[in-house]
């Protein structure tokens, strides 16, 4: 197996969909591994160590949301693209909240899915290259370790999703710069997600609950009415 070729885990209970995705993934020079249920997916995750997961939400045993939560609880930062027939805004926001990196609704274009896979993997590679700094604020009240991707609040490790981390580190690198919602969507999702402004608001809300002493009176993630958000030291 070529170590330079990325490994993609495809999880869906519909065989025809798996076959189509697998064909497009392999034709794009990726290794493809497939699972038709949640337990098989978790087993393959540990055995294969995939570089990205395409995860259907509606599985016969464990739903995709629970698998996503499980992986994030285990501190895995593997990129996850959720694939589902659910098209409601709340469903999409919930998927992003629990740690998904992107969200594609059925029916979908296999070519678009592969493009999303490539874009997300590029973003992960850029994040890894740029990880070289440690940021500390307010006498070590908040520490962002951009080498290990760890965030600590008052000495306690904070578990952030990849999107939450991307937003936080971008803002922390540029204190007092005001970011529009569109800029934060681009930062968190590389501009490849046809999302909603509310997705950003949801990430900001989660960040405040995780890193602020009092989320109702935020010290770090501050709202600039009518414009967006900024990081206040």
UniProtKB/TrEMBL annotation:
Residues 7-121 form the Response regulatory domain. The modification 4-aspartylphosphate is found at residue 56. Residues 132-233 bind DNA. Pfam families: Response_reg (PF00072), Trans_reg_C (PF00486). GO terms for molecular function: phosphorelay response regulator activity; transcription cis-regulatory region binding. It comes from the Bacteria. Gene3D superfamilies: 3.40.50.2300, 6.10.250.690, Winged helix-like DNA-binding domain superfamily/Winged helix DNA-binding domain (1.10.10.10). Keywords: DNA-binding, Phosphoprotein, Transcription, Transcription regulation, Two-component regulatory system. GO terms for cellular component: cytosol; protein-DNA complex. One of its GO terms (biological process) is regulation of DNA-templated transcription. InterPro entries: CheY-like_superfamily (IPR011006), OmpR/PhoB-type_DNA-bd (IPR001867), Sig_transdc_resp-reg_C-effctor (IPR016032), Sig_transdc_resp-reg_receiver (IPR001789), WalR-like (IPR039420), WH-like_DNA-bd_sf (IPR036388). Residues 132-233 form the OmpR/PhoB-type domain. PANTHER family: ALKALINE PHOSPHATASE SYNTHESIS TRANSCRIPTIONAL REGULATORY PROTEIN PHOP, REGULATOR OF RPOS. May play the central regulatory role in sporulation. It may be an element of the effector pathway responsible for the activation of sporulation genes in response to nutritional stress. Spo0A may act in concert with spo0H (a sigma factor) to control the expression of some genes that are critical to the sporulation process. This is Stage 0 sporulation protein A homolog. It comes from Clostridium pasteurianum BC1.
């Amino acid at each position: 197996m070529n170590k330079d070729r990325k490994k993609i885990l495809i999880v869906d209970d519909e065989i025809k969909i798996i076959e189509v995705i697998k064909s497009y993934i392999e034709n794009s020079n990726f290794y493809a591994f497939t699972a038709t249920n949640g337990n098989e997916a978790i087993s393959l995750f540990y055995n294969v160590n995939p570089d990205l997961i395409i995860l259907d939400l509606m599985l016969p045993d464990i739903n995709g949301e629970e698998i996503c939560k499980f992986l994030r609880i285990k501190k895995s930062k593997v990129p996850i693209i959720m694939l589902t027939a659910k098209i409601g805004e709340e469903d999409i926001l919930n998927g992003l909240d629990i740690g998904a990196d992107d969200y594609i609704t059925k029916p979908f274009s296999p070519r678009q899915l592969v493009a999303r896979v490539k874009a997300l993997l590029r973003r992960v590679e850029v994040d890894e290259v740029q990880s070289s700094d440690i940021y500390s604020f307010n006498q070590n009240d908040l520490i962002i370790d951009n080498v290990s991707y760890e965030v600590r609040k008052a000495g306690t490790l904070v578990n952030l999703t990849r999107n939450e981390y991307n937003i936080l580190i971008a803002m922390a690198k540029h204190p007092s710069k005001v970011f529009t919602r569109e800029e934060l969507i681009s930062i968190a999702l590389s501009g490849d997600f046809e999302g909603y402004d509310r997705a950003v608001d949801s990430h900001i809300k989660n960040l405040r609950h995780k890193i602020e002493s009092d989320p109702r009176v935020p010290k770090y993630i501050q709202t600039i009415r009518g414009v967006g958000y900024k990081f206040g030291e």
